[in-house]
Structures are given as C-alpha cells and as structure tokens.
Amino acid sequence: MRIRITVFICFMLAAAMPTHAPFVRAADRPQVVLNALHTAASTDKAAARRFRETSPGHIPGIARPAERVVLSAPLDGVLMKVFVKEGQNVQAGEILAVMDNRVAKAAVAFAEAAATRNAELDRAKLELSLAEKIVHRQTALVAGKAITEHQLDEAKSRYEQAKADVARVQEIQAQARANLELEQARLESHNIRAPFSGQVLQIHEFAGATFTVQNKLLTLVSMTTLEAELHVPLSLFGVLKPGQQYQLIADEPVGNSLTATLKYRAPMIDSASMSFRCVFVIPNDDLRYPAGFAVKFDAEALESQGKTAQRGQGT
Description:
Strand order of the largest sheet: 1-8-11-10-9-12
Helix content: 40-55%
Strand content: 25-35%
Structural class: alpha+beta
Number of helices: 6
Shape: elongated
Distance between the termini: 99 Å
C-alpha cells in the first residue's frame, strides 16, 4: 500500500513540474541559429509580400544623386593636406586635397632650370653667324683669286658644322621642355581635384594618413539632379517614352508628387521578373529635396491610361 502511495505522489509531482525547452548540444547550436535566421527571413519576405499586395501597382525606387563619386588617392603616399570640410560646396576642377609632393616639386624646379638654360644655344648661334660671314667673305675672295677653292670649302664645312650644333642644342632644349611637362604632370598627379561641381558628403581620411590607391579619401555628390532607378513591368515597355515627364509619389520627408523625366529606358528586359530598367530624373536646382528618399511609380494607373488611349484610337 505504501509503495502505491509513493508511486502516485511521484507521478503527481512530475506532472506538476513546468515544461522546459529541450537541451541543445553545443554541436547543434549553429543549426538552431540558422533555423532562426531562416524563420526571420521568411517573416521579412511575408511582410514584403503583404506590402506589395496592398500596393500592387506601385513600383518602388530610391532618389539618389545623379552624380556621386568616391575619390581615392591617385598614388601611394602620405596625405599632406585636405582643403575642404564636410558639407562644403566645391567647383569642378577645385583642388580638394594634396598628397606629399615635395619630391615632385623639386623635380619640377630642376626641369625648369634645364628647360630655360639658353647660354649654350646663344653660343651656338653666335658661332653659326660668324661661320656664315666667313663663307660670304671667302666667296668674294675666291672670285678675286685671293684664296683657293679648298679654303672656301673649309669655311663652308665650318658653317655646316655650326648649323648642326645649333640644331643639336635646340633638340636638347626641346627634350628639356618635354621633361618639364612630364614633371609638371607628375606634380599635378598629387592633387585630388573635384571632377564636377557638388558638395563634399563625407571625408574618410585626414592629413597625415598613409595612403594607397585603394584607400577612400572623400565622397562627393551633386544634388542639383536626382535620379531614381525603377524596374517597371514589361506591359509598360511601349508606353514609357524617354524624354517624357511622369509623376512619382515621394515618401517622407518630401511627401508629395514629383514631376520626373524618363532619362533612360533599357533596351533589354529581365525575363525572370518580366520587367525592364528605367532611370527617372528629378530636377533639384534649388536643393529643396534631400537624397535618399523613397519614391513610387503608379504603373497600374499609367497602364490603364495606355489601354484607354489605345481603345480611343481604335474607335
């Protein structure tokens, strides 16, 4: 009887204990994490699918600067100076930063001295002028039988040699000028210039940093024109015309409808998604819009308009 009571009490205690999650071995934990990631991804996909179902005809995109570039060092070396600040407006061709160019400056100074050295050329020209006078004088003397033809030939030979010396010195000077242009180009390569007028969005490194050509220096953007890239359903391929204006619905912080011009319609389609790529241009000369806001294109409404126009032409 006591044994039965003891077994019954143990059974009741076991039933009353809270249920805990099963123990996961260390070897199985990566798979558990992976399963959790798959579950989260499935949830995100479901949320995205629900969003598309609520606005099936709206094609999303992002308004980005039409011109954006990440400038890097033109050569390996030390960044000597940065002349701009984040948010500063710059003009095309303006020097934004410069690499250590002390050796290049010295090379330019040496090349300038060689290219502007005229003493040797002046001496060669004087000798040529003298040789020419001697030839003229001895030509008259030969006519009067005062000197022999051999003496005149020697004078002419010295004249031709003087001409060759002038040409040689001129060639040396031409090479010196070409070398000066080369050294000036090498010096210029230490400058980082703005490829277009815009605004410094971000500075990634500062003076004193050691650079390679792979390093980012700064990001430059032009905000006067924004572009939105959208992948539009194939049914609108013949409806959208480059150069024409269309309405885009802008999300916050803009929050209204914008007029955009279709800049480019890709000639190839994506057979997997049955869509094609379009680039819309949004003018922003007054810089009223920031970059990065979301836009939507009401493809369904435009498709309906196209079908209505086709029916009107058919009647």
